[in-house]
Design brief:
276 residues; mainly beta; Mannose-Binding Protein A, Chain A; 3 domains; six-stranded mixed beta sheet; four-stranded mixed beta sheet; 3 helices; 9% helix
């Protein structure tokens, strides 16, 4: 009995129960012997050089990410465990659609100044060019801008009435002022000619009847040029020193030529303007 009490039942059905018959509890038994240690688990390393895993111990693994090889650490070093875990290449995917672009020149309908219609489509039939059987993906329009205004050129207008050396005190601005304030009112608003403007005149005008296209006159050359000395537009028309040089034009009916001289020489300025 779990309670230590014994109950007797007689033939007449009566019973007799004893008191708790259990003795005192015994002392605890000694502890059992410890079980043996389990096997250490493996540590995984990865990379492209197994020798870099300096903390690895026997039975650790190394996955080479460049070859997909698995190595195992032994007492003598690393040994191959699995040559590669990389699977075979999968099958090629299905051929995708071939999106193309078709341009209808002048086909834009919503552009103020006209433009082209761009159609995006799939080449369903595999034949060159856009066809009615091809699936249309969408359209777009490229609109043309408004026409620009024609550019203008400026030309030789004349030479100043007075001569000047290279020192006009206020540089290029001062030289332009010499042209625009000349007593010859035809030069009002003009500026000192550039080489480009001289050639505009040679290319587009009748030199034989052009007023003032004669003699010699200073012109602007801009960036320095070199003959035997530097040619600097008299240092931007700020000096009349004999060792500094400027450009001037020699005019004739065939166009003339450009040459240089020292800045102490007095010459008229060639004046340009009147764009058309």
């Amino acid at each position: 009995s779990t309670t230590g009490i014994l109950t007797l039942t007689y033939s007449d059905g009566s019973t007799l129960s004893t008191s708790d018959l259990r003795g005192a509890a015994g002392t605890d038994g000694t502890n059992g012997v410890d079980g043996t240690n389990g096997v250490n688990g493996a540590t995984w390393f990865s990379g492209t050089d197994e020798t870099s895993a300096t903390t690895a111990v026997e039975n650790d693994y190394y996955l080479r990410t460049d070859t997909f090889q698995i190595l195992i650490k032994t007492a003598t070093g690393w040994e191959n465990k699995i040559t590669t875990i990389k699977g075979d290449a999968g099958n090629d995917g299905a051929v995708g659609p071939n999106p193309l672009v078709h341009t209808t020149t002048g086909g834009a309908t919503s552009c103020t100044n006209g433009g082209d219609l761009i159609t995006f489509y799939l080449d369903d039939d595999g034949t060159p060019g856009y066809g009615v059987t091809d699936t249309q993906l969408g359209t777009a329009e490229t609109c043309s801008g408004t026409g620009g205004t024609s550019g203008s050129k400026t030309y030789f207008v004349g030479r100043t009435s007075a001569t000047s050396n290279g020192n006009v005190l206020n540089g290029y601005k001062g030289a332009n002022n010499v042209c625009s304030t000349d007593i010859n009112t035809a030069l009002a608003g003009t500026h000192v000619c550039t080489v480009e403007e001289i050639f505009n005149t040679i290319n587009d005008k009748d030199l034989t009847s052009l007023p003032g296209w004669t003699g010699q006159a200073w012109i602007n050359g801009g960036p320095p040029g070199y003959n035997t000395v530097a040619v600097t537009d008299c240092d931007g028309w700020t000096t009349d020193h004999t060792s500094v040089y400027g450009r001037y034009w020699v005019f004739n009916d065939n166009g003339g030529k450009s040459t240089v001289t020292s800045c102490n020489v007095g010459k008229a300025f060639a004046c340009c303007g009147g764009g058309n």
